[in-house]
């Protein structure tokens, strides 16, 4: 019962009111061969009025999009059971299905009870089952939580379907540009604009608790860093020094922000203590130092510097001290992002003409280029570490894409904006 | 054309807490964005060039020289003051020889008009990472600023802001656009 309450609470905490739909379509450009066959049987509906969200459709799309599962299309299903007793397991075995999900959505005076059961088709046994209460507005999130539960049960990895992504879009009307900082569900639905400006917005960074976003705004025709609380829209300006105020990165405990300032000359990395309101200079070099990112244990900071002539990644203790060069292959390595386990970093890797996403193993220092675009940038790890979200462009169309760490699985997310960039996956 | 100080247009979404108890803080966001003041006189969206290549005089979208409102010499195509964009090579903040006379002309004007201030906007092309390009844009603007200071322009007359790749002058995604975007714009501030 306490577990059930926890699920319900998570769903409440991260619930959004829907504002726009179908802004994004997803194409799986590559999948893994070992994808597990699973049938998500359309859930039975009970109740007077209709159900505003097709819960089983969302679950099917989540699992299929992950690349770990191969879902069975509805037309190929031999039956549409909604209770365990009604399942003829042999029929599903014959279709080569390993797993199946059935469920019901029961409406009662505008409230919904969603229940689902996951079965091992070969053993004919239930693996798990839950019932969840949901309001109409929560149904999509409830569906994503079901996907997370199934994903974790079958792969052993935490699901990321109920996460959110922040990103920047731009549009132009005549001579005026409009820049937006938006947040959507991980599948692109429920896009919300949390800030907009005719001047550029940049570098959104989630606080470790997922409640705030730090970003750069040029709204006053110069750069400043703001921290905005999502629930209230309340906003605090935390850095507005002469020159660059950029590249905010939260410490894992949420108490500090690493950032780039050029108030004393060249751009250097500083640590802003958000509690004590104190500022400490971390690097001091006449070259460009920027794009700090904290290791998940908080002990060190990786940043970009051109002190060697070209931009490369360097590492320094978050307490300060020796700065060691990390990258040596390629003439352009920048914008590092740590994996949640701290074992690898993603970066923008340039070879002279193309800029791609590469992953470096922190133990062996081996670098593996995992994308094949011409201008791939802004890598951001999924909270379970399985995928990297990044911005890409083909011709005039900018889009977001997600790639597995080995580069073998790729999904393209197409929003209605052609100018979409700087994705950041919520913690 | 005068670059007026503009009203800022930033709108934060009004965010509404839906019914939920205090300790179960609901992060639901309602999009209440309002686009505020229009009429932004945005120096960065002007058109480039009169067709004579990167060192040519330039006019903005309404066929005006960007700093024409400051004085007649700024719209005389034979006067180097009519040029107010300095272009750069890839990943470089070094001023090319072609632009030395342009910078010198602006420096002379500023020395002769100590009350006049300019903002030097540094920009880059879209390749590479965004924050690094912010740093590169600032280096470009600083290169121009240091040449002006050598020629006697006072610190207080010069302001630098780097937009990196965030405000392209040309919106293509090829070398032709990139070379127009690696630039410093000299934006005179209206008196």
Automatic annotation (TrEMBL), chain A:
Where in or outside the cell it occurs: the entry states: Periplasm
- Keywords of this protein's UniProt record, alphabetized? Cell cycle, Cell division, Periplasm, Signal
Q: Which InterPro entries match?
A: 6-blade_b-propeller_TolB-like, Tol-Pal_TolB, TolB_N, WD40
Broad class of the protein's primary localization: periplasm
Q: Which GO terms describe its cellular component?
A: periplasmic space
BP-aspect Gene Ontology terms: cell division; protein import
Tell me which HAMAP family the record gives: TolB
Give the record's subunit note: The Tol-Pal system is composed of five core proteins: the inner membrane proteins TolA, TolQ and TolR, the periplasmic protein TolB and the outer membrane protein Pal. They form a network linking the inner and outer membranes and the peptidoglycan layer.
Q: Into which family does the record put it?
A: Belongs to the TolB family.
**Name used for this protein in its record:** Tol-Pal system protein TolB
Q: List the gene name.
A: tolB
Automatic annotation (TrEMBL), chain B:
For this UniProt entry, which residues form the secretion signal?
1-21
Q: Where in the cell is it found?
A: Cell outer membrane
PROSITE patterns in alphabetical order: OMPA_2, PROKAR_LIPOPROTEIN
**Family assignment from sequence similarity:** Belongs to the Pal lipoprotein family.
Q: Which GO terms describe its biological process?
A: cell division
Which UniProt keywords are given for this protein, alphabetically ordered?
Cell cycle, Cell division, Cell outer membrane, Lipoprotein, Membrane, Palmitate, Signal
Q: Which domain of life is it from?
A: Bacteria
Outline the subunit composition. Answer: The Tol-Pal system is composed of five core proteins: the inner membrane proteins TolA, TolQ and TolR, the periplasmic protein TolB and the outer membrane protein Pal. They form a network linking the inner and outer membranes and the peptidoglycan layer.
Q: What is the protein's membrane topology class?
A: Lipid-anchor
* Positions of the OmpA-like domain: 75-191
Question: What name appears for this protein in its UniProt entry?
Answer: Peptidoglycan-associated lipoprotein
HAMAP family in UniProt: Pal
List the GO terms this entry assigns under cellular component, sorted alphabetically: cell outer membrane
Q: What does this protein do?
A: Part of the Tol-Pal system, which plays a role in outer membrane invagination during cell division and is important for maintaining outer membrane integrity.
Q: CDD domains of this UniProt entry?
A: OmpA_C-like
Which PANTHER family does this chain map to? LIPOPROTEIN YIAD-RELATED, STATOR ELEMENT OF FLAGELLAR MOTOR COMPLEX
| Pfam hit, one | OmpA
């Amino acid at each position: 019962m306490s577990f059930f309450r926890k699920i319900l609470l998570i769903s409440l905490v991260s619930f959004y009111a829907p504002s726009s739909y179908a802004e994004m379509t997803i194409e799986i450009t590559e999948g893994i061969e070992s994808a597990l066959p699973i049938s998500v049987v359309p859930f039975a509906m009970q109740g007077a009025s209709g159900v505003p969200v097709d819960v089983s459709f969302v679950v099917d799309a989540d699992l299929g999009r992950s690349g770990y599962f191969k879902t069975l299309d509805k037309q190929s299903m031999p039956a549409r059971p909604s209770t365990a007793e009604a399942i003829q397991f042999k029929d599903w075995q014959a279709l080569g299905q390993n797993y199946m999900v059935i469920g019901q959505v029961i409406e009662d005076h505008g409230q919904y009870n969603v229940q689902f059961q996951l079965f091992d088709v070969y053993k004919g046994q239930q693996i798990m089952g839950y019932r969840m209460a949901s309001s109409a507005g929560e149904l999509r999130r409830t569906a994503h939580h079901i996907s997370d539960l199934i994903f974790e049960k079958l792969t052993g990895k935490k699901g990321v379907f109920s996460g959110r992504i922040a990103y920047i879009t731009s549009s132009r009307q005549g001579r005026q540009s409009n820049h937006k900082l938006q947040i959507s569900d991980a599948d692109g639905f429920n896009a919300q604009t949390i800030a907009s400006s005719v001047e550029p917005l940049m570098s959104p960074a989630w606080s470790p608790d997922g409640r705030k976003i730090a970003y750069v705004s040029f709204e006053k025709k110069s750069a400043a860093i703001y921290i905005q609380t999502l629930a209230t829209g309340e906003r605090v300006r935390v850095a507005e020094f002469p020159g660059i105020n950029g590249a905010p990165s939260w410490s894992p405990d949420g108490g500090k922000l690493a950032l780039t300032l050029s108030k004393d000359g060249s751009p250097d990395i500083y640590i802003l203590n958000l509690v004590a309101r104190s500022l400490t200079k971390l690097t001091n070099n006449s070259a460009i130092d920027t794009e700090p990112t904290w290791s998940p244990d908080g002990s060190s900071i990786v940043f970009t510097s051109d002190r060697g002539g070209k931009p490369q990644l360097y590492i320094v203790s978050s307490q300060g001290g020796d700065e060691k060069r990390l990258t040596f292959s390629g003439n352009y390595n920048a914008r590092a992002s740590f994996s949640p386990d701290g074992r690898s970093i993603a970066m923008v890797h340039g070879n002279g003409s193309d800029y791609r996403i590469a992953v470096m193993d922190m133990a062996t220092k081996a670098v593996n280029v995992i994308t094949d675009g011409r201008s791939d940038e802004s890598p951001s790890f999924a909270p379970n570490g399985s995928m990297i979200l990044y911005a890409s462009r083909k011709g005039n169309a900018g889009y977001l894409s997600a790639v597995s760490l080995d580069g073998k699985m790729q999904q393209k997310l197409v929003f209605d904006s052609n100018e979409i960039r700087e994705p950041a996956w919520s913690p | 054309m005068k670059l007026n100080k503009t009203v800022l247009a930033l709108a934060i979404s009004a965010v509404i807490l839906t019914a939920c108890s205090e300790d179960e803080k609901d992060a639901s966001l309602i999009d209440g964005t309002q686009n505020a003041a229009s009429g932004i006189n945005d120096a960065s969206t002007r058109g480039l060039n009169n067709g004579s290549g990167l060192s040519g005089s330039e006019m903005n979208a309404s066929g005006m020289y960007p700093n024409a409102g400051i004085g007649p010499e700024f719209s005389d195509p034979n006067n180097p003051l009519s040029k107010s964009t300095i272009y750069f090579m890839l990943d470089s903040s070094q001023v090319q020889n072609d632009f030395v006379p342009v910078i010198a002309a602006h420096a002379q004007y500023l020395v002769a008009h100590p009350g006049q201030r300019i903002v030097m906007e540094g920009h880059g092309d879209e390749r590479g990472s965004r924050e690094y390009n912010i740093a590169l844009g600032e280096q470009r603007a600083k290169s121009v600023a240091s040449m002006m200071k050598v020629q006697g322009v006072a610190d207080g007359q010069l302001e630098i802001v780097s937009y990196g790749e965030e405000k392209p002058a040309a919106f293509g995604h090829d070398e032709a656009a990139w070379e127009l975007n690696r630039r410093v714009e000299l934006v005179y501030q209206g008196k």
